Queue: 2 jobs
Job 1
Amino acid sequence: MTELLGLTLAEARDRLAGGEFTSVELTEAYLRAMEAGRSLNAFITETPEKALDMAKASDERRRRGEAGPLEGLPIAIKDLFCTEGVLTTAASHILDGFKPPYESTVTANLWRDGAVMLGKLNMDEFAMGSANVTSYYGSVRNPWRRKNSEAALVPGGSSGGSAAAVAARLALAATGTDTGGSIRQPASFCGIAGIKPTYGRCSRWGIIAFASSLDQAGPMARTVRDAAIMLRSMCGFDPKDSTSVDVPVPDFEAALTGDVRGLRVGIPKEYRVDGMPEEIERLWRQGVDWLKAAGAEIVDISLPHTKYALPTYYIVAPAEASSNLARYDGVRYGLRVPGKSLIEMYENTRAEGFGREVKRRIMIGTYVLSAGYYDAYYLKAQKVRSLIARDFTNAYERCDVILAPTTPSTAFAIGEKQDDPIAMYLNDVFTVPASLAGLPAMSVPAGVGDDGLPLGLQLIGRPFDEETVLKVAEVIERAAEFKALPPGAV
């Protein structure tokens, strides 16, 4: 059974189709792995009975010749996606006991295509964080370790449970969400592939909202091909989501031709930030060399408003969060802490239900939206956001895709930056600009740092051109030959 855990999603799909094993056998192998890997705290809710029922139904559909694109493949779901009848918490105390009576569109699409649900994954509370240390259910541990050290490391955030589960072989693949880098940064920290599609490509319906103009679902998987397979099933127009865009969903896997000859790859000078470690710069240069060798043309570009991206993001995202999280009041669902009056009940519930980082962002957001500060902060941030988006539009007149680092460092130890919110926010310095512009962006594992931990390279594409992003990512993946595994993974 250990051999089954070593298969990629694409390999498992093909071998299931060839009748080498059943979905039940594959699912049982992952359920045992989940049990053995509980020390990582990657799951909030395990659903073994549901997984086996879904696997049995999948095997029956295959026998009837009705297999879907993801038929029988065991995956895990970030706990931000509503799953009908299954506890959904957004890793927050305030959603204690919430079992949605409906299914998110993205997960419904995955079940439609035959996937099997192993459980709900841990995350930063309400997706607010870069280290997966703000969860009410405790920190997730990265399965990787530094050379000559047993210190527990963060997996990145907010989709840290997703990244850790995939890297540790506790799931074939997982869903994540990306608001300012929450798919790409943990993918880099854990040595896996993760893509944030264009804003509007995947429906947001049934995903618990953090910042509505930024949140976007995407897949996290072991390889670029696996991510492409997952993404095709996750995408699609949804009339229930007013931001869903009605565009055709291509066969992303078919785009992985390996041919990038003549493709223009932009290198943004503004991503060379002060204090960037030499190993990050070195890997970036190596990525340039790999693409040159594959026949791509390297073009220097400028994204002049990049330096304003982080402050812009940390005005826009908390403002939207303060609005979205106003609905959690203890009246309709989740936690309720009684009080002597309705107002006191609200205050008690929100004070006890929300964690420290969520409260910080609600307060920042409420402040920038308040009378007297709306124009000075929020309105100005929206104008700067438009300038950042325009920078990308101008850059794509000279290039087809942009290559940059994913993160400014390898994974750090749990607790290392916990008392310094600014240092924590700086983890998103390379990922936030693409989020503000709503562009597709992907992290692909490309090497290891001097400490033996994985490092990713990031590719940013034109709107709805995930095919080019995936194609270039796979070329880097092949050139990098990243074979390193965390301890204990098969």
Job 2
Amino acid sequence: MSEIADKFQKQSKLKAFDLKHRKTITFNIGKYNAAFKKGLLQYEDLDLAKSRAANIKRKVVNNLDSCLIDFEQNFTNNGGKVIWAVDAEEARNEVLNILKKHGAKKVVKMKSMTTEEIELNTFLEKQGIESLETDLGEYIVQLANEKPYHIVTPAMHKSKEDIALLFNEKMGWDEGLSPEEITAKVRVILRDKFYNADVGITGANFLIADTGSIALTENEGNGALSMSMPPVHIAIAGIEKIIPSINDLDLFWPLLSSHGTGQRMTVYNSIISGPKKAREIDGPTENYVIILDNNRTQLLAQEEQRIALSCIRCGACLNACPVYKNIGGHTYEATYSGPIGSVISPWLLGMKDYKHLSFASSLCGACTEVCPVKIPLHDLLLLNRRDAVIQKQSTVVEKLMVKGSNKFLMKRNWLDFFSGKTKSFFISLFIKKLWGNNRKFPPFAKKSFHDEWVEKNKKD
């Protein structure tokens, strides 16, 4: 077992029985579930919308090279600059080169999981550059020196009391401030940062091939300010963020909103097509897009699992997953957590260290059911498990357990020998430790199903 897998198991055991954590997450996801249910009411035929979106994304994934070339050509024609980054290090260095070119020392950032993936904030801070998160949730976790807990709601693990205490400790603010009062005070701080920033950095919800545009969706206006107020705008996006046409946004924006936050449409939706033109007053004078691979082509090479690149990062699968709701986002030790993270992380970060995530699932199918682009997530988890075995990533203990249980389960007389109390005793010897000290090991029935079946049929 890798160190990362061992740490995952230990943290999972602790977090699963952290009652305060469970209470906070249950409350916050409960709020989401209520909004999600209302958000779906806008659809006359939700399944049709999901099928259309899935079909578009499948075509994109299978023709990714040509779609990316179309985007690059059209974005360049709009006056923008496209930079290709093979991995996280190259992406970070390209950002640094742009900042040095413009003498930038202050950066404002919109919430972006891609920049979290390449650990951009830490890198810029080491270079003496201030990199400030301007999304309120991201601002909170940055202030707490933590990673985002969730793809969409990064501070989901914190209650309003936790947040008030954080601002008391870091800013000296009154611990009794309400969420509205805290938001108002943060807004004053951030507005000054927007005015004085040298560069704005965002992600991209979608890259639009036919117009060469970046589509951003958010609820606070910080994204619109990050890309329009500083003189330079840098967008960093994975190769999978492409959609073919600007006309596809009427399908993808509502799906992203309803599944991400339960809204009919998010408050701010922006389309950026290069730097500002001569006749325009607002906008950056220079606009860059860094298109990131970072092992996505490893996933693309998998004929069956490449469908995971269809993901639009709505976070719905995390909110539906019973495992995620119990062990929390930080336990995964990966940028992308929950079911989608468990599918893609072994390919992005390495099967050896992250194969265990594909086993951290009940395979209940709730994630597949809620996915707006119909990614069969629970099936892909099984395929990852298969590939982990093919790549010989199984430990000696795992091999012995599978081989032993296979022989045991294939013999009816062996199963019948261990019945009732005898079975409970022997099984508990082997797996009671794995079951944990916080749960009572359930006793086996006195009679097996086979025995009861035989008795019933004899009476009949």
